[in-house]
Fold this protein.
Amino acid sequence: MAIPGEVASVSGDRAVIDITGIRREVSIALVDRVNVGDYLLVHAGCAIAIIDKQEAMETLELLRQLAGNIHD
């Protein structure tokens, strides 16, 4: 499963991303030209794609809904 996060900072081939308030460092070695404010799709600590904000928000909402259904 890949999760979207917003890039908070970039340093070399690493970035810190924010996923609903939780910050994690991830590898950005597999994607080109990552900038602060971009949204990345992250799997196993590695960014695998840059996505647009709308897609990121829709994906996060779907994940919230799935999490809610798991606990019901």
Observations:
- The helical segments are 53-71.
